[in-house]
Design brief:
With 203 residues, the chain is mainly alpha-helical. It contains seven helices and no strands. The relative contact order is 0.16.
Amino acid sequence: MNETAHMEHRDYTGAKLGMWLFLFTEILLFGGMFLVYAEYRQVNTADFHEAGSEMNVFIGAANTIILLTSSLTMALAISSIKKGLRVRSLTLQAATVLLGLGFLVNKYFEWSDHIHKGLYPDSPDLLAMSHGKILFFGLYYVMTGIHALHVIIGISVITFTLALTLRGGISGADYVKLENTGLFWHIVDIIWIYLFPLFYLIR
């Protein structure tokens, strides 16, 4: 291996390692919140059951399908750029962005419906409910809100990689930025796969 190839390999390995370390901190963040949820649910099972009936399972399921599809389009975008299929990769990256926006639109309508019903933090209607229900909706807004923020960040980064690909900054010879972005997006999707049953399906 010549010196240039060695340096490129080292840079690639370093970039991948840095991304995995960052993703590990994300797993710790959400893992901690999942543990808090489990503890509160154990103590307030009946209240969590009743509060969960307010969740719109259809929207939750639709968002799950959207994010799973977006993971597929992102994986195919990376595979395409590795094969030198630039236009296909651009199309798939754009599709991933649109799917992410679709997720956020659904989340906006869902939150708007909850707010319209008075089910939001510190609302008089919610404060009049039992302690367990207040905890449920508090966790719901915090956990899905932080997740939605990650979706926004992911969309922004994919838009950036889309522009880089368009300008030739990402290609079949240099795709680590797109690969790392894909790893982040997959983690965001996996987190939702855990959030969906916790808030929408477990009764």
